Amino acid sequence: MDGKEFMKSLLEEVKKAVVGKEDVLELLTIALLSGGHVLIEGIPGVAKTTIAKAFANAIGLKFSRIQLTPDLLPADITGIYYYDQKTGEWTVKYGPIFANVVLADEINRAQPKTQSALLEAMQEKQVTIEGITHRLPEPFMVIATMNPLEHEGVYALPEAQLDRFMLKIEMGFPSKEEEIRLLTRKSRMDFGEVGPVVSREELLDLRKRAMDVTVSEEVIEYIYTLVSRTRADERLLFGASPRAGEHLLYAAKASAFLDGRDYVIPDDVKRVAIPVLSHRVILKAEYELEGLKARDVIEDIVKKTAVPV
User: Fold this and answer.
1) Are 41 and 139 within one domain?
2) Boundary (domain end) residue, out of 140, 172, 187
C-alpha cells in the first residue's frame, strides 16, 4: 500500500475506538513514519490515553504505558539486573521502555532524574542498565502526555528533553458534533477492538519509502528560513535549534508521503511547522504577560515568510 492508503486504513480502524481526532492521528502517523516522538498536551478526559492505545493497536506493535509519579525511579522505566536463585545467574528484567510504542502518561509528574531516563532512549534508541547497553525494539516511539492546568506537584520538562520531541500536539475539547456522537456511541456501547492494519515489515517499508521522498533545494531553503527567523524574532528569547530544522524536514517528508506524493511541497512544511517548532522556542516574559503564545509567533512567522514557487 502507499502512504495515502495506509492513512485511510488507519483512520478507519481507529474509528472503532475513537470519535474524531483525525488531525491528532495524522500527526502521530507522521511522527511514526519519520522516527520521532510526540508530546500531547491536554486537560484530563480528552482521550489522550485512548488515542495512544488505539494507535498502537492499529499498527500492530507492542504497547506499554508508564504512569509517571514523583516516586518513580529510573530503574522502574529501564529495568534492573537481579540474581536468579534457580539458575544461579544474574538476569535482566526489562522495564516498560522495551516496547514499540511507549505511553509516558503525565510525564511532568516525574522528578527530573526519572525524566532523564527517557533521554537516552528517545535519542539513541537504547538504554543502559548497570553499565550494559541494550537496544530498544524497532520501530520505537514515545508518546508523552502532559496536563497544562497543574502547577503543583509537577516538574517542568528541561529544554533538552522538549527538543527531543518531534511534535507537540495540543488537544482541546471536542466539537459539539463530536461530543454528541461520542455520547451517542457510549449510550449504545458502540465501541470495538482495534486491530492491526499493517504488519511490522510493511510498516518498516513504509517508513523507508517516506524518508526517500524527494525534497528540492528551494524547499530546504524555505525550511531553513523558517527556523532561522525564530532565532531573530524579537518576541522570542531563544529560537529553534538545528535539530528542529531536521525534524521539520523529516515531518514534511512523511506528510507528503501520506498525501500520496513522492516529493515535498511548501504546504507540507506549513502543515507541520507549528507542532514541530512551537515547543522549541521560549517566549519573552513581557509578551507572555500580554497573552501571546509561542504557537502564535510561529504561525505569524509562517504567514510572513515567502513561499518558494
Assistant:
1) yes
2) 187
In a domain, 172, yes or no: yes
State if pTM tops 0.85. yes
Between residues 38 and 119, the one the model is more confident about: 38
Residue span of the structural domain in which 223 resides? 213-304
Q: What is the pLDDT of residues 161-213, one digit of tens each?
A: 788 899 999 888 888 888 898 899 888 888 888 888 988 889 999 999 999 99
Query: Hey, which residues does 80 pair with through a beta bridge?
Result: 93
Residues 79 and 43 in one domain: yes
Q: Write out pLDDT tens, residues 209-230.
A: 999 999 999 999 999 999 999 9
Q: How many domains does the chain have?
A: 2
SS3 labels along the chain? CCHHHHHHHHHHHHCCCCCCCHHHHHHHHHHHHCCCCEEEEECCCCCHHHHHHHHHHHCCCCEEEEECCCCCCHHHHHEEEEEECCCCEEEEEECCCCCCEEEEECHHHCCHHHHCHHHHHHHHCEEEECCEEEECCCCCEEEEEECCCCCCCCCCCCHHHHCCCCEEEEECCCCHHHHHHHHHHHHCCCCCCCCCCCCHHHHHHHHHHHHCCECCHHHHHHHHHHHHHHHHCCCEEECCCHHHHHHHHHHHHHHHHHCCCCECCHHHHHHHHHHHHCCCCEECHHHHHCCCCHHHHHHHHHHHCCCCC
